Amino acid sequence: MLTANSASAFALRRGATRTRVVVTLIGLALVLAADATPGSPLASLRNWVFDAYQRYWPSARSGHPIVIIDIDAASIRHIGQWPWPRDHLARLVEAAAAARVIGIDLLLTEPDRLAGKNRETDTTLAASLRHLPVVLAAAAATPTDEAPLHPTAAATPVFEVGNDPRTNLPHYQAVSWPQEVLASAASGTGLVTVPPEADGIMRRMPTVAAVGSLLLPSFGVEIVRVAGRTDRISFRSEATGGSTLEIGDRIIPTDPAGGVWPRYASNAAVPSVRAEHVLRGEVDREIFRDRIVLIGTSAPGLADAFETPLRRLQSGVSIQAELVDCLLAGDVVSRPAIAPALERVLAAALAIAAMLRFGKTRDAAFILISLSTVILLGIGSLGAFGAAGLLLDATLPAVALLTAGAVVLAERIPQEVRARQRLADALREAQLRLDAENARESLAMALDAAGMGFWDADLIRSTWQRSPRYDEIFGQTEGTTRWDNGTLLARTVPEDRDGVTRSLNAAVETGALHLSAAFAGPTAAFGQSLSMAACTTEKTARRPALLVS
After folding, report:
1. Residue ranges in the chain whose pLDDT is less than 50
2. Which domains does the chain have, with CATH numbers?
């Protein structure tokens, strides 16, 4: 297990600076947190990429075994305003009697308000349901006395296999069930409630939900069960995080929340017929034979339109039809339960590798390798989708790699600025030293030509350097006398020694030497004395060069 401390120690041993390690790990932590946050920019980018796969590599399914009887706006306009009497629904069910299964994607939770004393419409519809394979719809509701928690007798329980899956499954406190008279006559009831995505796009559809302590199937799953003439639905949850839905002998992989990603078909929409044509007998009933028939509405105001990954709006009943079609064909997109963990490990490995290699590889090569890695990640992700319908996220590792590259580059910029400043200062100082040395040599040549000597004194350290002409003027032989402040005072005529002492002490304190004195030299025997002039510069404020003539 790679911890932050061990990663930091390893990186430091490989030559990365502590600042680079800390900043890179912070950037990586922010990227991983954004990936795990629903609705974050990184999560939205991942969903956009997965949607793009579906748009540019849609399912090639053909020959849909499903037909929709659509209660559309035109049917309502010609038959009458909604809701219709329930005996109208009974006529639609009877018209599709040859179907393998009929699903009514309408909530029939209350008695028919249009029924009369001589028109028991609910009883009529129940009679039609009783001798045909029909699945009714239920929906999650706010807990009330009218929305009981416990399901009706027609609800098919889902058996648990393996670990308890309830922690991850959608959980509802109450459900709006169909009327008891209808539910008891139907072959099954399924939930049509779909947990919303952050951006409202219908990517994942639930297959199982928890209602109280029971697990119940979704509307599409119950239709597949009835169509397969099986009595058992099982949900298997593995310790590794993998989950599968078993409908009879049919095994469907799901995510830990029991969701599946339908692979939407773009070549043709699910066939549909208008409800008004069915009620008027204008539709050949043979088109329903051995097919799955869904009765629902696409009329504005009665049904919501949902956006799919193909970026087109579809009614709820058409999306349910797509789900049933995918489950029957086994054509669902799969995101392995272990994929998120592996993607995070890969993201961390790439970020740390970028941190360690940066500075050891030329910048152009580093950028080329990073971009090539991002391209390979994208190709691998797209290939997995095209070959096996697997959703593997390339955006997280790619963003982590690019973020690490940007972080180490940003961390290096101030260092390069400081290094260049130090280099510029060193070059400037070297140039000043060269200029001073050239000036010293020029001055020495001029003084030698004029018969003048000079010395250079560090008054603080009491160290002196002098020219040969200086020693000649003072009658010194080379190396015979070590010059210091005391030597200068010894050469000063007695009446000027106090003034020279004060001038030297003042020069140490102020950095400026003001000196006017007479000095005894070899010519003193002839009654002559030497004269000196002291001059200072800003760079040598406490190292005056004195000329002697």
Report:
1. 1-2, 8-15, 523-531, 533-549
2. 4-51+337-417 (no CATH), 61-155+171-229+261-330 (no CATH), 450-548 (3.30.450.20)
